[in-house]
Amino acid sequence: AEKYHAPILKQGEPVLNEFIQSLPFTPTASQTRAMRDLIRDLAMDRPMNRLLQGDVGAGKTVVAAFGLLLAVRNNTQAALLVPTEILAEQHFRSIKKLLEPFNISVGLLTAATETPKREKMLAELRQNKLSVLIGTHAMLQERELLARELHDSIGQILAAAQLQICSASQLLARGETNQVAIYLQRLSDIVQEAKESVRTYL
Q: What is the pTM of this model?
């Protein structure tokens, strides 16, 4: 069976203690137990597969907010996907308030998000200026857009690299070895550009 890997999220207990202290209320025993379950699951190198069940108002959003905080504290970005725009807006307001003590940037992305704001948010995601994104399936569409842009960018870089290799090969064939170093340096620069491009999108 194919094995999927996930980033290992550490320092769960210290982050949990800090999160609980920031709350204007004391979480219930069930909430605390659920957050500790998250700590245990997210400390593994495989994706978590867990169902959090509770009535309306039971405090599931608080548990989700802790999971987002733990991800950000481990230098990763996090997203919360919800089925409707109304729920997305409600969760955005709630989680933004819960994470406010930690100065974590939270964005809202739905089908109703206007294009200028969407593009700004997309740029902030690339630059790691936006830590948490909450929204509907529109988030998945943006991920596809990022993948297409990365594909196009890499295609352009590979074309440039191929040109430098061909030029160097032609010089070698003619015995003009003194000029080869110039093209090899250009190739090295292109490889570095490729690394930066991938790092920008991932």
A: 0.69
